[in-house]
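Deliverable D5.2: sample structural annotation.
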Amino acid sequence: MFRKYTQVLFYLLVCLLLISACEPLTEPPPLPSPVLNTSVPVIQNPTEIPTPTELPPQIPLAAKVNGIGILLSDYERELQNYRSSFAENDPIPSDEELKQTVLTFLIEQQLLVNAAHQNGFSLSEEALEQKITELSNEMGGQDALNTWMQNNSHSQESLRTSLRMAAEAAHQRDAIIDEVPHTAEQVRARQIFTIHQGDAIDAERSLAGGTDFEQIAWRHSPESGGELGWFPRGFLLFPEIEEAAFSLPVGSNSTIIQTELGFHILHIIAHEDAHPLTTDARVILQDKALEAWLSAAKDQAEIEILVP
């Protein structure tokens, strides 16, 4: 779900630089995986890891995830901050969409935190204090941080909780995405692409008559010659093109493939079982791995929504 929030960047900032707990995906993002090396101090003894307990019933909750409560006050704060993150002229989603986005984020974060604890990771007090100090320095000092907290309805306690959960969720997220290998089965292909079916038919006839594929491809795509480069399964926008590319032998051409964009004819240049992934391809596979982990985790979890 993380990539879905294109307008949630400011909202995530409200979560106190939740993603500042982890480095940007410069290299090669879930099922719970082995805990990776990290510079964040780790409590090694599982008995020292705080075991989440169900909150007393008198404390208002927005949701429960496997019996662990998400405070109504946290939900309302994040909802308000998310709503306020939109610029004056930006289209604002409906109240239902806003609520669903915030609830989904908080539930997924709790699932990641739960998995981090199960895998033996919990942010130490020393590391938490360091993060608070870093945040204060980034904002220009304690007074600036206090002002920010007041403007965003944060108390010292809620700040500490948000930072701790952000770091623990990010740790588990990194463990999940780092499971994606650096190599994968990939195909390198070139395409003849046109928006007109008649042009595609003419190209197919020219190929049958012996005209070089690359020559026709450059005619239709003068900026790239139709070069698609190397790509793994799950990378292309249209699965029908991907399916054809992985099923054809090297050196062969596909029949005309119709998509929403137009008409394609593929030529398979190479096919390798373990070709190095580009950074972009690995990031896309990492996103898919994270989405798959979260989807499976939600399917297996007991999730109770307590707000209308």
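Annotation notes: The beta strands are 61-65, 68-71, 183-194, 227-232, 257-258, 263-276, 303-305. The chain is about 45% helix and 15% strand.
The annotation will be released with the project's public dataset once the embargo ends.
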